[in-house]
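With this grant's support, we have settled on a layout for protein records. One resulting record is reproduced below.
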Amino acid sequence: MKTFKHTKDAFTLMELIIGMVLMGIIILAVFSFEIVSREIFRSSERKSIVSDEAAFVLDHIQKYVWDGEGGGANPDALSIIVGVDQILCVRNTTNWLGNYTFDFTNHQVVFKKGGVDYPLTQRLYNDAANPFEIDVVGQDGGVRIRNFTLMYNPNENYNARNNPMAVIKGIYFYPYGQKL
């Protein structure tokens, strides 16, 4: 009868199983890290989109309010029309500069100039607890905006990760002649 000598030249079945389990754990950890990294990137990207659009809309409004001449020279240069949509009308002494329509039904801010509509954003959101307000204030003819809110998808519920919002609690724009 032949006897076999046990040599250490090969792996045992138990060593192979342990190696495969450890390799599986490492692969799962790498893929989990990848998935979490993508989700964090997506969330950051959505927050950036919303805040960039809010800054763009407010910068656009500021530019045209600066061009409007309010106050003593032309007290009607800035006016608000309140209806279903709130409309900010901007003009100077010689030209009609344009209208901003805050359309909460379609979630958009539209700038209208020369008969052409320029949509600035389609993420407008009106929070019932802190409703949007816009008005012309004082003799200087400045514009005050309160609770200007944009949401990544205004048709869905707020979620800080998947549906972030940018809220501007209050901002005031002076016409160019009164800004200093």
Summary: The chain has a mean pLDDT of 84. The chain has one domain: 38-178. The CA atoms of residues 78 and 166 lie 26 Å apart.
